[in-house]
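# step 3/5: fold
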Amino acid sequence: MCGIFAYTGKKGKEAGGVLLDGLLSLEYRGYDSAGIFMPEAGVVRAPGAVAELRKKIPKDFKGKSGIAHLRWATHGEPTEQNAHPHSDGSGEIWVVHNGIIENFKELKKKLEVAGHEFKSATDTEVLAHLVEEHLKTEKSFEKAALAALNEVRGTYGIALQYKMEPDKIIAARMGSPIVLGLGDGEHFVASDPSPILPHTRKVVFLEDGDVAVISSDGHKIFKLDASNVHRATTDIDWSAEAAQKGGHEHFMIKEILEAPEVVVNTLRGRLIPEKGLAKLGGLESVAEQLEKIDRIIIVACGTAYYAGLVGEYMLEEYAGIPVEVELGSEFRYRKPVINERTIVLGISQSGETADTLEALREGKRHGALTLGIVNTVGSTIARETDAGVYNHAGPEIGVASTKAFVSQLVALALLTVFLGRQRGMSQSEGEKIAQELKSLPQKIQSILDRKGEIEELAKKYASVRDFLYIGRKYNLPIAYEGALKLKELSYIHAEGCGAGEMKHGPIAMIDEEFPTFAIVPKDSVYEKMLSNIQQIKARKGPVIALTTEGDTEVASVAGDVFFVPETSEMLSPILNAVPLHLFSYYFSKANGYNPDRPRNLAKSVTVE
């Protein structure tokens, strides 16, 4: 959510171009205005896309350092006046900020009494004025920034710059990710590594309460109490090119088409098929503790929450462990019953989802073993959990998660085998699951090879304004996921429903103009799903059915059918998710929307 990029260097690079390119690589995060400040050139801000900002930049806008920002509005409308960077009253101190300053009103009131005048409706502007106020007594930019940050409550990722010390940039983190890029004679600050990678792969991830100072010559990190601290340098192993579209019209379709490769990467080195075992190196340090666990609580938000619901079926059926799945945004406000024999497992693509992170921290406070399934190396969840599993899905740029969701389901299947074999799952059962997992890439590719069929279905239904998705057992969460993707990308009413719950309300909506997407593979609830489809048909509701190759019965009750390769019931959600993702993509495109940039949404939700 929002995006920060800052640069300082002495290599002769034109900072304005570096900063603009960095903002372009952060566009996937979601934003509604953009801006750049350079001490030697001034500030340029604009509502709308980076392209609009570029149009406003004069030819003589040049410098060796600067800070830049993409804003997703929280306090104040998306106007030029509210766009970042924001300055103090003198125009010498400038700030870009992700997050929310919870006590900004009381700080603003205090500053106004001291004579400060504010120009925007944002909470961020308070930070610049607060540093200005402390600079009157501290006489040091670093000390003034530290004093200001010690007055602030809330979440923030910040980059500060002082006109009188143009080579220096101060960054700070509290709940909103900040990463430093370490180059040769140049250094960077960003919300995530993507804008840094064209310049260097050496990065340092700040932790909550860290304050960093970068210059062209180096960097230092200290805590809010001014004590020095060391953070390890990480080498990022994916290139900037990996985050590009690769000739595809949108990142989303590129990432859907990468699903077979993603499954291979998530499985690589983790399956021992001939023994029916899963080898998860990230869990080896807690393997003995895992044997004593008698309960798992999965916490997640959005798409990751639906992955967790599938994981609940997997883990209970095959590992024999009671599982609860909780929305991270709700879990933190409960009084959960947790002890040292409980796992709290957080699932998050970014590893920075604020509510999921706080849920994990709550679990840790109660003595639980905390685990993470995350895609982003070095993310906060990856660092703060006791152990975990990386997805290895590679960078996901599209706001609507697709390939990361597939990889989360595969990671949960691996975890199921890992824990199941600890608890009595037979070797033959483990071998069976392992062989099915190995066959998934080829089966997913066969679905992708028929994406044209899905595109035609999307065009056929593109004018409708309502959609019902139904499923049972393992595929109920996939019904939720399909509905979520459609409303995210096309802004129509879509809802997922347990097929057995239809007659408790949702069926009242069904008529000739209200289609249903039924997920009906040949599994243990197949006959019940057929009965539910018949009920919809009796009310003249159009039906699209996803079913298993070779099934002839569904075609007699559904108007449109898409066939999916056969696999085990446990793994069917992985295959069924792919055509639903494709359908949402083509539906959005048919309605003239940009699937990569759904309105009001951001890739990484780092505030509540």
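# step 4/5: annotate
DSSP finds 18 helices and 26 strands in the chain.
# step 5/5: archive (pending)
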